[in-house]
Every structure is written in structure tokens, then in C-alpha cells.
Design the sequence.
């Protein structure tokens, strides 16, 4: 391979890496966006011959981007003041149904339709497991979540409280 293409591959890979960085900056304020990073790889090596001691002499022919990796670290959770906005702490995704297509997202900016369906801004239904008398059946098929509006639940008093404490050893007794 001509020596011109080796540095050209590096320039092209860095150009693509800058595009990934630009995309990260453009989505800085996008709800649920996960930053990405490029993963570089060496292109194959050419064997030119052997050295005086018999070891192969190899020359690489450049680099490119093997993949673009999403960063799934926990972002900061901020209150929006909107009752239907939710966030995921830790691993996981919201599962959506967009006209029969399953979509996964971490963006939790939802709204409630006129019939009580929990929807994304794009109109996709948020899916979840059905609950009967407050018990969630995780073996059932996920369905569209419905939020009952105008209903109130009667309060239930707390029956038991468990505390785990450490007492300061420097505190005076009594």
C-alpha cells in the first residue's frame, strides 16, 4: 500500500472522531442522551520480510474507527417540576411501542393522553408489566401503561419502621 494512505487513514479516523465529539456537544442538553466515544483499531500489518535474526518485519497500513461506543455511566438526575417526568437510576431503559416497533430509551419526559396512556413526546406508548391489586406480574407480556386521572387512593398508615444506625462513640452517656 502506498505510504500516502497510511497518514490519510489517520486523518480520516480523527475526522470521524471529531464528528462523534461534535455530536456529543450538540446533544449536551438532550434528555436521556448518552455520550459516545470512538474506538480506534489498527489496520492489518504487512510483512516486509525478516530481520537478521529471523523475526518478521511488519509495517502497519493505518488506522480506522472500529466502533462507536456509548457511555452508559449514570448522569445527574434533575427535577423538571413536571409530574409525568421520570428518570432511571442505574442500569435500564424504558421500553416503548411505536406502532408495533419496540424502542428503548432513557429519556423519561412523558405525558398522559386524553385516555390515560403514558406517552413520549413523539407519541410512542410506554410499556410496563400489569399490576393487579398493587402486585406487578413480571411474567406477563408488557402492555401500554395507563395512568388513572382523577382518582385518589386512601392513605394507609405505616405499620413498621426499621432503622440501621451507628451511634457516635464520643457522645456522653445519659
Sequence:
Amino acid at each position: 500500500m502506498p505510504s500516502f494512505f497510511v497518514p490519510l487513514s489517520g486523518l480520516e479516523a480523527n475526522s470521524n472522531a471529531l464528528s462523534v465529539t461534535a455530536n456529543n456537544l450538540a446533544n449536551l442538553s438532550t434528555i436521556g442522551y448518552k455520550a459516545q466515544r470512538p474506538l480506534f483499531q489498527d489496520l492489518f500489518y504487512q510483512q516486509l520480510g525478516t530481520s537478521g535474526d529471523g523475526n518478521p518485519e511488519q509495517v502497519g497500513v493505518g488506522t480506522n474507527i472500529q466502533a462507536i461506543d456509548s457511555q452508559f455511566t449514570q448522569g445527574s438526575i434533575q427535577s423538571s417540576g413536571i409530574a409525568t417526568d421520570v428518570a432511571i437510576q442505574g442500569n435500564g431503559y424504558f421500553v416503548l411501542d411505536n406502532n408495533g416497533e419496540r424502542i428503548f430509551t432513557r429519556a423519561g419526559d412523558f405525558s398522559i393522553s386524553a385516555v390515560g396512556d403514558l406517552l413520549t413526546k413523539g407519541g410512542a406508548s410506554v410499556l410496563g408489566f400489569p399490576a393487579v391489586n398493587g402486585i406487578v406480574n413480571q411474567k406477563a407480556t408488557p402492555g401500554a401503561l395507563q395512568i388513572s386521572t382523577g382518582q385518589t387512593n386512601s392513605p394507609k398508615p405505616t405499620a413498621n419502621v426499621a432503622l440501621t444506625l451507628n451511634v457516635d462513640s464520643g457522645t456522653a452517656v445519659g
User: Anything to note?
Assistant: The longest helix spans residues 5-26. Helices lie at 5-26.
